[in-house]
Amino acid sequence: MNANGKAAQAPAVIKTVSDPPRPLGIRLATIARSLVVLTIIAVATVCYFAQAVIAPALLALLLSLLLAPLVGQAQRLRVPRVAASGLVVLIGVALCVAAIVALAQPAREWVTQAPTTIKSVQHRLSSWRGPMQEAKKATDTIEGLTKEDTRGQQVVVQEPSTGLGSVLSNASKIIEGIAVVVLLVFFFLSSGDNFLRRLVEIAPTLTEKRTVVAIAREIETEMSRYLLTITAINFGLGCATAVATAVLQVPNPLLWGALAFVLNFAPYVGAAITGLTLALVGFSTFDSMPHALAVPGAFFLFAFIEGQLVTPTIIGRRLALNPVVVFIWLLVWGALWGIIGLLLAGPLLACFRIVCQHTEALRPIYVLIGDVRLDEEAA
User: Fold this and answer.
1) Of 77, 196, 267, 376, which is most buried by a Cβ count within 10 Å?
2) In the chain, where are the structural domains located?
3) What is the dihedral of CA 136, 142, 147, 152, to 10 degrees?
């Protein structure tokens, strides 16, 4: 006690408050996210540098899933799997060769005339713009004066050599790539369930073996059904485009139907490229503005019906894709593999979503890339 009879107070102890240690679960989640990002970067790098190997393999895998139901039907008729696979592949190759032979000549003509067609369209559009004709005349006058100034000078222009060797080299590479894809499709179809058996052997317990078999069967069935459905829808769009262009008296309507069928495998981008191409064809073929606009207009009408009514009705929301994710996915694969990446991006994204749907660890990705809400998924 002090002189006043009061008890002396103990001096206050100052404690340093530090941040509590982060739980182990949060640290593991951060490490897992970092590993996922690094894995994505590594996969993208491998895909970029190994395009010559991975792209044919993926294309062959998708084609084998598309043709697998036909092989199954042939097996039900007591045809051996190897023979059924070879027969299906031969029929597919024959159909593709027939289509290429039928469309090669008109396609070559249109590609050769593409620069002239673009200039013709530019000239026609400028002639349809009345107020801009004065500026066009002034530009032509300036170009005429420039030509008069250089009339006395001899200009030597060296045309780039076409290089028969380079043409043959490119043709041989294309043929080699097609042969690789065809052989891989045959091997995928003829191997059947060998890969699935290997997965079952790896699984340690009987329950896990049954789970692997069930998931693999369901994924294969849904992916085959999806690819068949999308191919049938795109074929219908191609047929409608061919009929419309034939009715509008556009030359080579089968060529434009085939173009719409192939490019529509690339969502959004394919339809835009087909519409712009048909716009060039319309403006270069017809003198009337309404007639020229009717060519791309008919296609865009069919594409709108297909994208907004037919595909959502047939496929349903369960396999629908988020448009934002689709666009980003297209940008990534287009930057990696160009036009081949654009054509493979849509089916690959849909197949990846099916895999995520049946894998519990990838369930959040399934909801993210799909056009479905959490409450609908829970229901």
Assistant:
1) 267
2) 39-125+174-191, 317-379
3) 170
| Residues 6+ away with beta carbon under 8 Å from 17 | none
- In contact, 51 and 337? CB cutoff 8 Å: yes
Tokens of 371: 């056009």
Top-confidence residue, 1 or 164:
1
The alpha carbon of 324 is separated from its chain's Cα centroid by a whole number of angstroms, namely: 14
- Residue 261, C-beta contacts closer than 8 angstroms, at least 6 positions apart: 234, 235, 237, 238, 241
* pLDDT above 70 (res 314): yes
Number of H helices, E strands in the chain: 16, 0
Taking residues 141-156, report their average pLDDT: 48
Contact 311, 267 (CB under 8 A): no
Predicted structure pTM score:
0.73
Which helix (H) or strand (E) element contains residue 323?
Answer: helix 323-337
* Rounded Cα–Cα distance for residues 103 and 141 (Å): 43
Helix (H, G, I), strand (E, B) or coil at 370: strand
